[in-house]
Task: inverse folding
DNA sequence: ATATATAGGACTGATTTTATCCTATTTATC
DNA sequence: GATAAATAGGATAAAATCAGTCCTATATAT
């Protein structure tokens, strides 16, 4: 199962997909969760993280909710995943060299640095504009 | 931490690196574990998996141990990782479409299929011959 | 005032990761 | 044949992470 994104990240992408679809309109957690099949209280945690990352903004109180802050071509899968999971990497030594004392001589370490960079690039290339365009909406 | 390979997979790569370095020679679990800084009993489990996957072969009894079965250009990081972790994918729906009932209409699903294939390709391109060559041995 | 929303932290159960340990089996050597 | 050194494989367990809930505080439209 490893090397997979978490349910939280998958849910976060659904949230953004939902809000992008509203074209700047607002939606409540209840709405997002129900429409995107996400447990309500879990969805609440997730949109909070998305808010802190600046991908969405929140309005409190009656008539409150969340709305997207950027246009679909300015948000990528990488943005959303890293908003909820933090910086991603293929091996622990990429983010923290000191985590492994073999790193200085390790012949595999550079591979993970390169593969991580390549994945981040690819995830970054999938903007929501592109995702929707390629799926035909 | 998600999207990372496990310690088990990292250890497995160290095991193969060790055996490749012996150029067809044999080594015991004790030897591999001690030289590659892997807990002994964990290393024992790992080389068993590598044996089942056909990457190494085992000899039982006194003077027994493990030796590599292929040349370094015929073993890639992908081979080793999938030997211990099974087939990898970036999201659950890639390996098992039925795991998510949104899959048929999901605009993101094709992204994960494509990204998974791209990662598998890149991991497959890192043979141990290449890893050693690029590290300068 | 009240009802409806988000903010945020504490908590929990389930699952996975990261091992350890034990018994059985194989085999070289004395 | 006995013995010592090795792998095979299953059972078990501690720790960490994941997935999700719950509760209180705060904001705001009506
Ligand atoms: S052994 Fe090499 S690849 Fe593995 S964690 Fe250490 S530095 Fe990274
Ligand atoms: S929502 Fe889409 S991307 Fe996420 S698991 Fe389901 S099919 Fe896959």
Result:
């Amino acid at each position: 199962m490893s090397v997979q994104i978490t349910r939280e990240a998958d849910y976060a992408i659904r949230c953004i997909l939902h809000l992008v679809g509203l074209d700047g309109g607002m939606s409540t957690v209840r709405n997002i969760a129900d429409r995107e099949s996400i447990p309500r209280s879990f969805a609440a945690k997730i949109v909070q993280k998305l808010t802190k990352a600046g991908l969405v903004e929140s309005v409190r109180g009656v008539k409150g909710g969340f709305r997207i802050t950027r246009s679909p071509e300015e948000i990528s899968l990488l943005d959303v995943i890293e908003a909820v999971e933090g910086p991603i990497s293929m091996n622990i030594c990429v983010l923290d060299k000191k985590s492994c004392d073999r790193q200085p001589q390790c012949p595999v370490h550079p591979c993970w640095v390169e593969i991580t960079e390549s994945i981040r690039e690819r995830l970054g290339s999938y903007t929501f504009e592109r995702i929707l365009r390629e799926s035909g909406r």
Summary: The beta strands of chain B are 56-59, 65-68. Residues 6-8, 39-42, 45, 59-64 of chain B lie near DNA strand C (CB under 10 Å from a C1'). The longest strand of chain B covers residues 56-59.
